[in-house]
Structure formats: C-alpha cells, structure tokens
Predict the 3D structure of the following.
Amino acid sequence: AAGRGALTPAGRDLHIQLQSPLNGSIEIRFTYDWTRSESPVALLDLFDRPDDGGGVLTAEWTPSSDHGWAAYRIYLKVGNWTTPPTAFELTSATYDARIPVWTVTMADIATAEGQPIMDGDDIHGIVVQEYADGSLGEPSDIIGPAQSSDEVPAPPAWANAGPADGGEDGDLYVEWEECSALDHAGTRIWAVRTEITDAIGLPQQGPDVHEDSNSTVLRLERGRVYWVALTCVDEAGQHDPANATIVGPVVPTGGVDDGIPPAPVEDIKAYDTPDDEGGMITVEWTPNTESDCAWHAVMARPVSAEEDDTQPPADALDFLNSTIVADCESGMANISDWGGLALEDNVLYWITVVAYDVWGNGDLIDVTIVQASPERNMFGSNPPPRLQNLSAWDHPDDDGRAVDVEWDASEVMDFGYYVVWASDHPVDDLTVLYPNCRADLAACGATVLDRQYSIDGSSMRVAVTITTAIYGGDSVVNGTPGIISPDIPLYVTVTAHDLLDAAFLTRLPAVVVTPIDNRDDIVPPDRLEVPVVTDFPDDNGTAVYVKFTPSGASDLDHYEVYADIIKYTSTGPRQPAMVVGRDVQQPFMLTNLSDGQSIMSGIPVYVAIVPVDSSGNAHRDQLNVGSGRAVDNSDEDPGAHLPDVDFSAIWSKHGESIEVEWVPLTGTDIRGYRIYVSEERFEMTGEAALLKEGIVGSFWELDEWQQDVPFDNSTEWYIAVVAFDGENWKHAVRSKEIKAFDSTSSEEDGPGNNEATAGIGDLLTLNNVLSVLLMLAIMSIIFMMVRVRHNRRDNQAWELVTGAWGLPQDKEDGSWGDASEPFSAPAAAPDVDLEGTLMPAASAIHAEERGASDTDITPARATAPTDASARLADLASDLFDEPRKGDDADEDLDSLIDDLL
C-alpha cells in the first residue's frame, strides 16, 4: 500500500516501479481507500514590507497539500488573540486577504481586522485554508508581532556629473541610478561650492526632480567648482542626507575638453601647525595662474616603513585627498586627514598639491612632494566652548518625523564635528551616554555634522534637520534610538567636538520642541500677550520699537505684524505691516502702518503680533493689541551732558589706514570713546557709521571702512570722536574732514592734506545760516522804517523853508538831508543862512507856545496865523517835542520785530 505522493493541481502524482515475474505482461489494479485528515498550512513569516511608505505587512506561508483546497485566507489582528482562534470562530471573522491561487504563498496586506494598518502597531497573524464547500481548515500557529513602518528611501547607488561636450557655459549634466522605493516621489539635488561628504544641513535649492527622471541639467555659475549631492525622496518627504550620493568636484563649463592638465604647482611647503593640540599640518604653495585652473587638491599619504624618507616618491598616484581648495587664488590650507583618516602625531607624511582645470584634468605624475609631521604643541584638554543661541523647530510640511535645529557656529581652529542629540528625556548631561556611543554615534540616534559653518558662508548660524531621537527608558542613557515620532516633546542639544573628540558634556544648553504632523494640522499657535510699543529713540518721529513675548509653538514659521492708528481686535481686511522671522531680534523697528502709510509723530499706533505656523494656521481675531506713540526727538541729545572730544585724524604713512588721536577726558563718568566715519559731512552720529566703540585710551587706527573693504584714500572722509558714559554717548558732533591722501606731504610740512581739519565749512551749518539771515532781515526792516520816517519829516521841513524864504522847490535830486553832499541853491538865488534864520525863528515860536501854555492870562485877541507860521510851528513841534506815546508807526514796527524774533 502507498500512502504518499506529490499533490498537484491535477491530482496526486505517484511514481511506482513494477517488474513482470513471467513473460513481461503485468496486470495492475488500483483501489482507493481514504479517510479525510487535514494537513493545515503554516504561516512562515509576517514582516514589514521593505522600502515602502508604511501601512503594509508581508505574509508568507506554506502551500496546501489538501486536494479539496480552494483558497488561502490570512487573518491579522492588532495585538494578539487571548486564545488561538478556531475554524468556527474564523468563519464569522473578517479576513484581511484571500488568495485563490494555489501557487501564491506570499502577499502584501494593508488591513488588520478589516481596518488600515497603522505604523508602529503590533500585529499578529494566522493563515487557514478554505475548501470548495466554503468550510475552513485548521488554523496555523500564530505569528507575530510585526510592525509596519515608512522607511527612509536609500540614495542612488551611483551618480555622474560634469560638463557635456559642446554644452553651454554654466551647464552641468547630472545622471544617477533610478530610485527604487515603492513610494518614490522624486530626487533631490544640491550643488554647493564647498567640499562636502554628506547633505546634512543643506537647504533645499529647488523642487525635486520628477520621479520618472534620472538625469537633469543644472544651470550654475560658469567656471566655479561645485559638489553635487543626491538623495531619493518618498511621498512623505523623507530622504537620507547623511548617506547622500556625492559627486565632485566638478565645474560647469562649455567648449571641448583639451585633456591637458595645468602646470605643476611650485613652492610647496608643509610644516606642523603651531600652537595646536596636534593632528594638523599647514601647507603653503604658489597658486597656479593658468586661465583654466579651477581648484587645488592637497594630497597626502604616510611614509611607509619600506621607504627611504629622504627620497620622495616619483608620483602621487597612490596619494589620497586631504582637502580641496575650490579656487586658484588661495595658497594655504590646514589639513587634518588623508582620505578620511586622521593624521597621527609624530608620523611622517608625504604631501603634495595638484592643480586641476575646469574639466578635472590634473597631473599626478609631475608633482613636487614634501614631507611633514604633525605634533602636539599644547597639552591639556581644551574643548570647544559650549554652543550659544540654540533653537529647535518642527520641520514644516512633513508627517511629524523631523525637527529643524539651529545654533551659532563654533569658531575654534581645531574644530572636528558637531553632534545633535534629541530625546524625550533631558539631555543636558551626556557624560554617561557619550562614551557608550562614541564608536557609532548614529546607532545611538545622534546626528553628526562635520561642517563647521553654513554651507554658503553667509551666516554664522548652522542649521540641520534631524530625523532620529532616543525614546523610552527612565533616562537618556538607557533609551532606544528610533525615528522621530509626532506629538512627543523632545529635548534637543548640540555638542561641539575638536579633532581629538574633546567636548563639554555637562551643563549643555537644551531646548524643547514638539514634532507635528503638518498634513492634517489645523491648530494655530496660541495668541500672544500684549506687545510693548515704545518710541524709537533719536529719530524724527516716524518709527516705533516693538517687543513681544515669543510664541512657544514648535511649528512656528513667522510672525505677522499689524499696525493702525485706530483701535482694533481683529485683522479684518488689513494686510501685515511687516512679516518677521521666528528668530527675529527684539525689539525691532516698525515704520509703516498696515495700509502702507508712514507712522507720524504724536499719533497713537496700535500694534498686534500674529504668530503663524508652517501650515498657515493663525488666530487673527480677539487679538491683544499694544499701543504707543512715535516722538520727534531728532533735536534731543541724550549725551548732551558729555563734553566734546578734541581729536585729530591723519592718514598713516602710506595712506592705507586712518590714525585718530584725541585728548583724554578726565571726567570720572567717561567709560570709553566711539569713532564715527562717513563719506559726507555729518552733525549727528546717526548720520554716520560706527566703526569702533568701547575704546579705552586716546588713540585708534582705522584699517577698514567696511568688512574686508579698505578706506579709499583718493577721496575725503569725515570723522568724529565722541565720549561714552556707559549708557549714552554724545550725538551732536562737529565732524572733521580728512582730505584725500597726498603721498608727497611730509611731517616736516606741518598739517597738510593728510590731516583732518574743521574750517569755515564746519560753521556753515543750517541753524547758523538761518540765524544770520534772520538777523539781516530784522536789521534791514528797522533801517527802512527809520529811513521812511526821517524822509517824511525832511519833506515837511523843506516845504516850510521854501514857503517862508522862497527857496527853489526842486528836491527830486534827493540831496536834502544828505550829509554826504552839501546843499547848493540855484546860481541865481543868494545863499541862505539856515542856521541864522530857520533855527532861531523856530526856537522863538516854540518858546512863545510854551510861555502861553504856562500862563493863565488869555490874550484878548488872537492873531490869525499865516501858512508860513503854521508850518514853522509844526516844524518846531517835530524838532523839540518829545516823541508821542503809543505812536501807531512805532507800534507797527515793534510788532513786526516781535514777530520776526
């Protein structure tokens, strides 16, 4: 009897060998006796589907051996069954996969108990076979737990970059292996002008390349050296910058590759870097000056034991890069490794420098090779200082699996690397954790950044996005590293290490941040408290200072600033008067209202600050509004109590700098001096640039007008020195002019063109000119009024004389009363003695009037006056009477003068 045979879709296959006992004929008879006995399938494995977007598990099982088989059923459950389920119980349960193909023994499953699988949930599963009559066989053993996850896609396995033959200047052709992630969404590319080994901390430079593409052309600055980094990005925005594929250095250029490398580099010198803690060599050379030179590569390798250290190698074919200087102008570099391996103290190294052209041609055969050995000149641990101004924020537009971290760059010469730590436990003390993680920091969930400054060098802030943290346990020491999870607050810190791995591990600065899933984020940041609005000092009343308490939202993106001259509690139709970043320096200056109008002096300004998160959520009603006024205090000087500084300024001997010297002030409240410089004459310090403050002493030499910009000695400059008492400085100044440098002047000539002077031009200020013009106007008006009154009296006297004595009436020549020219009558008339006739007669008439007024006797008869006597009487009154009180003309003159004053 045979009880076995291979089961196939056509039936059971049984091979039997038979032999005839007689004449070769044989009779065969089959009988089939059976009893139903199940042979259940077994679930072999349940695991996360690799390189996908999460939410899917893969199940694998054995094929069925039952002839009555109809399908496979897979049941998944979140958690686990309390007791193994029976076939009867599974009949009424919802299966998560049904496979009616007998040869298929593996399937991807996206549900558990009929519901979508959630990443991180523990899932258990069983498989059971279904028969043709709909009944179920015996369930398999339970397998689990398994968890689904959204994996970070791996970067391309290879990439090429370079100029294309016949291409345009600035074109860089890039090609790479296609990304293989199931949820692949695109390829991210960076092109930077600094040597890199990864893409950590690099800001995104543009949209990702389409998911179906594996090549592109970058338009870059021609003739410059670039490094290209590539990563694959999935649908959740995840990528792996730490393991980015790097290509470079490459140069975007056009034309045809001539294949000729630049000439060998000359004058190479290498020596131990002085005053360091070892592991560093300084290399100097004369830069290559050829037009197609693109960069210099400093290369090295240790001297082997078999070599004669007095005989340099014949070529540099086996040398490895120590560093690349991405230009052909620099002639010095400090190296601390060769091919990624640290230089060892007291070990002799062969070193050379090779010039490369824009096509990457370099000569490794004809080279100058020197030797040097690093030494430790300073002993004792001196790690880099603890980092300052650390901040952390939720990474925008993601699913809550990343955090952005920023800090001020370390400026130590022997910088090694940064390490970013994140955990749901405090991370201010890493003395126990770091020794355990030192060999593999990434395995501890830490992020390593070996770039000291920002990638473009334009900022002293370093930024990086981290995706891993340490979770669980009772402290950071015994936690487990993993992918960052949303909505769990994290403590974040950064340690700075030198070349010897030394770093401060205690009293570390730390911040708290909460990663947020921005895909469904509709929660805005909390409203801020009332901002403080104050006058901007020393201005003309067109600006205010604004200060507020920063938002604590982890996903904060920016602040909107609203300003109006009427009270409000919601933004309404108003547009932001300005938008400031989340790390804005406070207080900041506000000059405009929300309607675009300028702030005016004395008018209240109402200001509200609205925090906005990375998803655009914000509260724009029920705002807390602060108010203040701008004040025109341009004529106020908070340092008016400080004395003027007597100073002099001259060009240095060769005209490359300005030497300023002053007489020290003896006041006990003087804490230092400030130097202001401008290209134009100025009267207030706000109109000039502050070049140096906090000076103690009586001399300073100004080397630069701006950073890396020297003074132009072919033009004049204006300089002022003011005193500072610790809080205020003198704002009103009299700047002195230093004329263009005259190389022919000498000290024996005395003060000349090279010395600052304060001539008549310094006195011609706006206030002085207006005062002089006002005084001239007042004097002119007084003179004109007096002259008019005098001329009127002269006319009356002339008429009287001509009527009484018959003098000529020709007065059109204006000579009457002119003291500069004696009056002369016409030739036909005799000379008239005015002194003997006019003055005695007038005196006599005046005396008679006074006598008449003094006596009580009234004349019995009045004599009718003649015209001549009446005029003579008026003349006498004008000559001898006291001026009348309250004369209208005098009052008008006085009023006019008062108005002018």
